[in-house]
Amino acid sequence: MYQLLRPKRRLELVVACIFLFFIEFHPPAYGKCEKGSWNLLEKDENGIWFYYHDIECPVPGLNIVRTRIIYNEGGVLRHVKKYGKDYTNLEQAISIWEIDCPQRKFRLLNVIFYAKDKSIIECYDDERGKHFTLEDIPAGSFLESVSEKICR
User: Fold this and answer.
1) Do residues 31 and 57 make contact, with C-beta atoms less than 8 angstroms apart?
2) What domains, with CATH codes, occur in the chain?
3) Across the strands, what pairs with 111?
4) CA-CA distance, 63 to 103, in Å (whole number)?
5) How would you write the pLDDT of the chain (152 residues) with one tens digit per residue?
6) Contact 145, 44 (CB under 8 A)
7) Is 35 exposed, middle or buried (0-12, 13-18, 19+ CB in 10 A)?
């Protein structure tokens, strides 16, 4: 099939593959406060958590942070039970959170659930917090662990 593509189409395919690779393996920028790397956070009953901190953003005390969970078998089974069979091949989720350090509150901005074949199972985008209000960070949660790391 690759030989059947015209040279222009082959170039478009290569460019698209490079672009998708970049998106998959490099965290997306979220404003001008990009800085940091993926850091191991903790293991829980759902899998292994990582966080990526963007440093403080323009509003003092307000932080944008990404989390990534690589699900274990138990985490996958819980998602299948709660959300349906579409989650059978769940591998990981990458989320973007807004954390208000002084108030100890959070808001989910974006989450993408990925299957083992790297396809997207589901994507949720809150359009910069238009639908959710800030909520208290639950004690003992991974968000509490994240806030302890970034709210210094």
Assistant:
1) yes
2) 33-150 (2.40.128)
3) 95, 124
4) 12
5) 444 444 544 455 444 444 444 444 444 333 333 456 788 999 999 999 999 876 556 577 788 889 999 999 999 999 999 999 999 999 999 999 889 989 999 999 899 999 999 999 999 887 655 677 789 999 999 999 999 888 87
6) no
7) exposed
Residues paired with 27 in a beta bridge: none
Helical ranges in 26-151 per DSSP H: 73-83, 142-150
Phi-psi region of 94 (alpha: psi -120 to 50; beta: other; left: phi over 0): beta
Q: How far apart are CA 2 and CA 92, in angstroms?
A: 31
Q: Are 49 and 69 in contact (CB under 8 A)?
A: yes
Rounded CA-CA distance 151/53 in Å is: 10
Cβ atoms of 27 and 66 closer than 8 Å: yes
Q: How far apart are CA 106 and CA 93, in angstroms?
A: 18
pTM: 0.70
Q: DSSP secondary-structure letter at 2?
A: G
DSSP-derived secondary structure letter, 118: S
Position 121, amino acid = I
